[in-house]
Amino acid sequence: MNLTFEEYLQDLGLENLAEIESLDALSSVALTVHKQFLLDLYDVVGEDNFNAIKTSIRLGPALYMTTLKHLAPNYLEIYKKSKNKIFIKLKEAV
Amino acid sequence: MSDVLRGGVNTFGVPSTTGDFRLQLKRPKAKSVQNVPELVAKFGEVKKKMLDLARENESLKEQLLKAHTTNDLLAQENTQLKEKASQVLDVETTIDQSIEELLAVDTGLEETLPTFVSKIPRPVRFGFTKKATAIAPMEVVKEVRKAPTMRTEMKIKNSAVLNVPSTTLKKESVPSPFEVVDLTLVKKDEPVVLPVSSIKEKEVDVPAPKPEDVVKALPVEEPATTFFPAPNILEGNKLADAKKEKALSGKTKLEAVNDATMEDVSKYLLAISTLPIENQKTAVAKFLSLDIMPKNFTGVVKAPVAKDIVGDGIAKIKHLTEAEKARLYADLNTSFEDFYVKNLTTEGVAYLTATKALTEEDARKIVAQIKNLNAYNVWHDHTDQTIGNLDLGGEKINVRKNISTMILNIIRTGELLGLVLAPSESITVSEYFEQSQKNIREHSTSL
């Protein structure tokens, strides 16, 4: 389920942050989640396909998403799991 | 023609005084009439030979041409291979650097959490008073460091249990073959007599391990890593050596997901940093949900027509300032509906009227035509005609949506580049679409 910015803040217990800080915090969370996603993706697609995905990241979001769709059709599922891993850790820490 | 060849006489039949006398002497006497058939036959032979030679010459010419073409192709291929080699070497260098950096710095959460936690205001985080919070951040960082990191997780390979410290894993790794069924309290001095039935071997309940389970339990060897296709170029040996070294050093996925990759990912977030704060919030939330692109846009990238436009778009993006690029990306990242409603009905009309060639009424006509694509099926024939040979899974509606999105992108790109699109009053949507593409192409070649 796609949450809004405010819902993500609430989910992580960060709703009292100042606007700029909350943007910074969620941006860094987003990058961490994405890193975890790429790590998990590597296990699923293997090295060669992962290199293709890496290249597609450089070519812009449209090609990145298309490549993901073709090389890892269940990428949304993988992403969800990766996001949960990071969110659990973050909630524990906060 | 020289006198010698004329048989030693000039055009008036007078013997030449300028020719070579010896040659004149050697010159055969005038042919008699009897020799004519022989000469004709010889001439025929010579002619045939000449024709053969001409044919051979033509064939040689063709071969030469082919050779030239092949040579050109080979030269082209060679250049491409050299470029690829240099790219591969660049990537190699980047990977080497990243490996060095990765060895020095822990990754993942351990890396990000302290920064993340430090961003949280202390009272909010801990509910402490100001005095008490003075030491809080370090405590949290310590706690965070105690937690199993991604690196720890990496060490626990082949384990289904993630995020659990290795000590926990050890404890539960070997189950006891016995289980206590009944325990009764007895006095200290009394001999303990356990009923036979109180202890039973679990083996009865445990089925024999299946062969596939045994295979699963065995340590799984990581397959040898291969990084690049076999090099067949000048730098081939170097690459092969580098590949061997990498394979020996045991490259992991942590090295694959290096800083350069994360930098590429962070560019998506960077692109939205120039937007108004509310839009940034939406974009960050979407990024967190991996809603980077509208779903209906992704499939159409395969289409030649889309590739054309996307290619043009990328070419344009290269000439844009960072702020313009960010705007363009942001527009591409919004959902179709958002983009459609916002840009087409308001900015679309504004843009078209600003091109001078259109009144607001004319601009609205164009916009209305695009807006009603789905309702009136205007694009049905056009899309079939343009990308009819594509396997798009019969998603005609999506195709139409995508094409109209692309038109809007063209409009936006045109707007950003200051291109003047001047559709006339009688223009059809298809013509407008083609004209727009043509204008952009011409503009891109002139850049």
Mean pLDDT of chain B: 54
Series of secondary-structure elements of chain A, N-terminal to C-terminal: HHHH
Report, as a whole number of angstroms, the end-to-end distance of chain A. 23 Å
Assembly type: heterodimer
**Mind describing the biggest β-sheet of chain A?**
none
Q: How would you describe this protein?
A:
The complex is a heterodimer of chains A (94) and B (447). Chain A is built from 4 helices and no strands. Chain A has 94 residues and is mostly helical. Chain B is mostly helical and 447 residues long. Chain B has helices spanning 21-26, 36-104, 108-118, 122-126, 130-133, 136-146, 150-155, 166-171, 211-217, 236-249, 253-256, 259-271, 277-288, 295-298, 304-319, 322-333, 336-354, 360-371, 373-376, 378-387, 396-417, 429-446; strands at residues 178-180, 199-201. Chain B has a two-stranded antiparallel sheet. In chain B, helix 15 (304-319) packs parallel to helix 21 and helix 17 (336-354) crosses helix 21. Residues 1-7, 121-209, 211-236, 244-250, 294-318, 331-343, 370-404 and 410-429 of chain B have low confidence and may be disordered. At the A-B interface, helix 1, helix 2, helix 3 and helix 4 of A face helix 3, helix 6, helix 11, helix 12 and helix 13 of B.
